[in-house]
Task: structure prediction
Amino acid sequence: KAGVTQTPRYLIKTRGQQVTLSCSPISGHRSVSWYQQTPGQGLQFLFEYFSETQRNKGNFPGRFSGRQFSNSRSEMNVSTLELGDSALYLCASRQVTSYEQYFGPGTRLTVT
Amino acid sequence: QKEVEQDPGPLSVPEGAIVSLNCTYSNSAFQYFMWYRQYSRKGPELLMYTYSSGNKEDGRFTAQVDKSSKYISLFIRDSQPSDSATYLCAMEGSSNTGKLIFGQGTTLQVKP
Result:
């Protein structure tokens, strides 16, 4: 079974721009969670989607948003990028009856 | 104070040593405990998953949870250079929100 895939793997953006990242979950997994990983803060939860609905949100500003499609694929968007948004963005999928989350390789975003 | 505390290391051991990695936590609502391994520039890989207190063994890896002390451990027997990575503990309560709380990660180096 194919794992979680994320595109693109690397991105370089300029401050003030916006960016969209994509995540395709493991087949049959309908829950997708997004995390931000930085050296200083570690892995922090952004939000979780199930059945196209955001069910839970972490402590991030409204510039961070996401959505989920009917095929469970998910996107996250960051608007008005700031230098501090440079990070590895990870998505994880799971079956809704399980707590085990499986991560993708991440998208490394650099904001200059 | 962070909900989950984990010594960042680095921890350096000779090949064949037994490695002990630990996390402490403050939220007594945590019921589900996971250990992830993350290689440089990769996404976290789920190693072990346990529910509530007790031990779980999988090959060279043993996970222990002591809820009374709010303390979890991962033991690696017969450590190999290929075990060199960052090890992250993660946990979640019983509300199934898809929100994992992570420790900062411990960097392990196994020297041949």
Chain B has no helices and eleven strands. The longest strand of chain B covers residues 85-92. Chain B has a mean pLDDT of 95. Chain B touches chain A through 24 residues (CB under 8 Å).
